[in-house]
Write a structure and sequence with these properties.
Mean pLDDT: 87
Helix content: over 70%
Number of helices: 9
Order of helices and strands: HHHHHHHHH
Shape: globular
Low-confidence stretches: 249-262
CATH class: Mainly Alpha
Largest sheet: none
Structural class: mainly alpha
Amino acid sequence: MPGVSSRTGKRVAALAADEIQVLAEALAAAPATAAGVHEARKSIRRLRSLLSLVRPALGKSDVQPVDAALKVLAKGLSALRDGQVVLDTAHDCARHAASADEAASWDALAPLLAHQQEHRVADALADDPGFMQRQAQAHRQAERLRALPWHRLRADDLRHGLARSLRRQQRTQEIALASGDLDDLHDLRRKSRRLRMQLNALKRLRVSMHGVAVASRDIAGLVDQLGALQDLALLQRSLTALEPAPQVRAWPVATRRRMVRPSPIHPLA
């Protein structure tokens, strides 16, 4: 890649190039499969977490346009991904129903939720057939990534970036646990997930984390717990927007019981 001279810079540039390729391939598959949308959003998150690590070293003016474009791309996929999460969570609730009546209620709701999702997919494809515009955007960002001044990057820059992310996660965790607000918990999930992705990136890059004490397993557990809460919140929102089918009588009660079930959160120490 042009201008890459440092060993760390070469490795990070190669990782970013691999990730943007994964994104382009996921977008090509996305119109035909929900997994494509899911993988595309994960790839964007990994890329943005990597850019967050290197932004101070490479320069905000160079990195910010790429990050902003990726953020817009992710936002354009969020409704599709959220809709699939709602479907998956509803199926999970049906599998773990406390009674046959509750399971029947979830089974009756499944076609309504699926119909919602079909409309979302149809609207997205009508606006961007084959996701060609999104794929073109991914290729434009690949060119921008190649042009970044990776030669400036050193291993210490990555360690400093990780330490910054850990401090942000800790501040967000304090706020979320004090308030219990869903938006604050969602923000905590985003910060924790980014920290986990950055840790994984440093491991792939073989960069030691001198003095940055945080366990990947603890972060993964926290992200999973917060994710389960968010999935239920998305399901509740979708159910609220539905006109209940005549044959579905018990679902509001079953849903409320499922929503208030205790789910202890284990914060990072």
